[in-house]
Amino acid sequence: MRNEKTTEDIALGIRRRVFEHSMRNNGGYLSQACSAGEQLAWLYNEALNLGPPILPMIPKPFEGVPSPNNPDYHTGAGYNGPAAPEYDRLFIAPAHYALVAYATLIEVGRMAPEGLEMFNQDGSSVEMIGAEHSPGMEVHNGTLGIGLSTAAGLAFGRKLRGETGNTWVFMSDGEVQEGQTWEAVQACAFHNIEVKAIMDVNDQQCDGAMGTVMEVGDLRTKFTNFGAHCVEVDGHDLNAIRQASQEDHEGKPLIILARTNPFHAMSILEERFPRLHYVRFKSEDERARMNQSIAKDLGVDPVDYAH
Amino acid sequence: MVEMVSRPYASAFEKFAAGNPDILCLSADLTSSCEIDGFRDRHPDQFLSMGMAEQNMMSFAGGLGLAGFRPFIHTFGVFMYRRPYDQLMASIAYPRRKVRMMAFLPGVTTPGGMTHQSIEDISVMRSIPNMTILETGDATEVESICEAADSIDGPVWCRVLRGSVPRLFNTPIKVGEMRELSAGDDILVVTSGICTEEAMRARAALKKAGLSIRHLHLHTIKPFDSKALLDQIASVKHGVITLENHVTEGGVGSLVAETMADAGVGKRLIRLGLKDTYAHGGSRPYLMRYYGLDALALVRGVEDLVGQAVDITENDLDAARVDDVHSLVKAEAL
């Protein structure tokens, strides 16, 4: 698909959509849009080689879970296009970034804006924690740590089949607390699996700043020691991300550590630090102040959420 | 004399998988222990060493399934589901990946004690939507487990016997069917896995004592044909006894109990197996005796069911086969 917008515009669009949604719904994953906007915009607008969507722009309602009695079951991967050998695949490992991922699909023309209005509505496939059937998702990743392993298996299988498409994972830094992440990296290194991952290193997790919940140390050194090719960049600097993705990582997984600011472009969120995982406004006053401040930061009008 | 077959899985898996590029053999550091060392050596292109990292192995296998492969993953049953249960659910069971979990050392078939004995795996697997459960009871079933598992459009849990395995049957597993090993109208005995051989040991003595035993062997535990079982139950007078290498909660005993309760069958049921207990380490005959999983335990269960002693002792039972503790067909003491 032809890029109609710049990646910078898409990142801004993602933040605007997540902001507007969160204001209207009295909360949302605002901080994740701040930290990951550039990464998801870059993936969809530049890095990923995807075919046109094969699912309707307005997502269908929930149509049941996989079962032998549900032959029409499909995943949400169709929003990323068909699973053809030459095309890339993407897993959103931290499924709670779904709101940000859906906003990205809209910004790049893969889902209708109405899709976001279905977010977290009963009977909708546009689930709060991205499910297998949710737009843009191909597997369940609600459990942190399983995304990289699944991508490694897929990438290995695709290599055996001679497929040329890449297998990408969008990860979050909290996942490194899970032992499975390191199991996956060592398996990739041992079996020469060139899976590609970009990790939103925002130093945040549900309980607060990672350093106060469980210190994880020097990630670059750890990933390198486990056998990955690891690059650390400013996650809001698109040129740095572009360069990192071009690094030679033959026979190894590529891990791009994108260091980010969890209130980038929404400075007022710093008031809520370190509890940024899901921002629900504590009072009408706070909601109003954030509405004004974030709208100004993003260059849009405040949201008329009363109606 | 029962024919003993040495390492039936080794040759069966190789025969099944060699030359089928969609079948991949995964191992978590228990390659010779799961009898796939020969396959690894002769078919390295289809073999993947995953190391002692079961969580990654489960999700990785899910990814291979997504790429259209049908991975057979090999480790001991306990390691296959206790630690990586979440990964098993999210990466294999939910999306119905065609992953075949070859779970070795079911129940008390290991001297390894609690950490090695999968005594509640059937209970766990039965409660997982989309899961199929097969259990081998003899060498023929081990030899046919790969084809049987690979015929399933979804994930499969297989309790696999290894080492020196008796040949009790001469027909392969037919998924969804049950084996009627003897006809009788007093008592229905339902067994699975290694307990079937024990029930066969007891049958002649029970017949001599004047009891007519109908004996069913289950190799398919899920999905399960309730109607066929109910017909069998209807044809006996006294009731049903189940005997299994598993805790009685959630296993074959529960399966029969649920089937009877759902249908309102008013007959007695005695469930034999591990009774709300872990086992400890020891030889298989010792553990089966100690925890009441053997032929004599079945005889005592029959006495309970009919309400009278049948005067059968160990000497009246058909000979138990005794494996060498350090048999050459075992990879190691475990």
From TrEMBL, chain A:
A Pfam cross-reference name: Transketolase_N
Protein name (database record): Transketolase
Lineage of source species: Bacteria, Pseudomonadati, Pseudomonadota, Alphaproteobacteria, Rhodobacterales
Keywords: Thiamine pyrophosphate
Organism annotation: Roseicitreum antarcticum
Cofactor: thiamine diphosphate
Transketolase N-terminal domain residues: 83-260
UniProt keyword annotation of Transmembrane present: no
Similarity annotation: Belongs to the transketolase family.
Record keyword Zinc-finger present: no
Automatic annotation (TrEMBL), chain B:
UniProt keyword annotations, A-Z: Thiamine pyrophosphate
Database matches in InterPro entries: PDH/Transketolase, THDP-binding, Transketo_C/PFOR_II, Transketolase-like_Pyr-bd, Transketolase_C
SUPFAM superfamilies, per the entry: Thiamin diphosphate-binding fold (THDP-binding), TK C-terminal domain-like
Tree of life domain: Bacteria
Cofactor field: thiamine diphosphate
Keyword Transmembrane helix: no
Claim: DNA-binding is one of the keywords in the record: no
Pfam families: Transket_pyr, Transketolase_C
Domain Transketolase-like pyrimidine-binding, first and last residues per copy: 3-167
SMART domains membership: Transket_pyr
Family classification: Belongs to the transketolase family.
Designated name of the protein: Transketolase
